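SEVERITY: medium
COMPONENT: batch folding queue
REPORTER: lab tech (J.R.)

DESCRIPTION
The queue accepted two submissions in a row. Attaching both inputs and their returned structure tokens so the on-call engineer can compare them side by side.

ATTACHMENT 1
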Amino acid sequence: MMSEVEIEGLREVTESLGEFLKRHREASGKNLEEIARVTRISKRYLLALEENDVDNMPEEAFARGFLRNYAVEVGLDPEECLDRFDRFKRSQLPTQIKDLRRMKKQDFVLGENAGSSVDWNLLRSPKLIFGGVTALVVALGLVVYFLSFRTSIDGEDTAQSIEIDEGATVTAEPENAAVEPSQKGLVTPVPPSVLQIEVKETLRLVVRIDEGAAQEIVIEPNAVKNFDVYRQIEIKNLKKNTVSLKYNGKPIEFSSTTLKLFNQYMFSE
């Protein structure tokens, strides 16, 4: 039988990044809600990291900062977490190139053993060479066309995404906004901006926060609602004389029924 030390060592090698994080979090006696509240990291990002959900993970720069804070909170070594994250990212790289090289090597060995079964004169045929070159040129042309087409579509989508109703007060997101690493190459998670909504009469609003789905909420008279904005927030059905807004404690003037705001701390130096 394997000793406990051997079992623990085997588990350290075979378990995934998410399993490693979840095991140590549960051992610390903390749940995701507690960690999200203390670190100010969205619960859905923490859940994506624990479930190895690549599609819902934050951008890598943010993910590394989140992992460092997560590790400190559950008593892990931050550097070990980042090292496991790097290995996880490498494991997601496509393996088609390696498989293709392996297949070519096997084909070469089979052809060599087959002796006269390979017609080398046929492979040197001018018609075959011309056909191969033509196919390669056509394929390259299609790739260039596809890349240029996607670039034009992405440019149009970017231009449309920053259109807002005239008169709304917003914080525009810079085109090349980047996260500045610290001296040790680490990223500090960006805190959320806070939007405060107060109404004078019952009001039904449609709110969409970050990449989440739009939700309809009802605010009663004199009630105050606060929303944490990690990336952006969009509000519809506003009434100028009924609603008062404060963003990070500062009043906001608006003249449209729709308002879109970005997290101000994402662009502060």
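ATTACHMENT 2
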Amino acid sequence: MPNMIPRGVPGPMKLYIGSLHFNITEDMLRGIFEPFGKIDTVQLMTDPETGRSKGYGFITVSGIGH
């Protein structure tokens, strides 16, 4: 996947991550994407009433492939 993103892209990028299993955690997401570059933030979207994952989230990355 990192070959799809051009090197030298300035600044951090916020990536949408969808179709996630409802049991995945922010720590699990971080572990999956860390091999591809520096992860600045992980935000898993949850239902405010139940606290259950909505199945998508966002990752802010910098230094992809470095």
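NOTES FROM REPORTER
Residues 26-33 form the longest helix (8 residues).
No errors were logged for either attachment.
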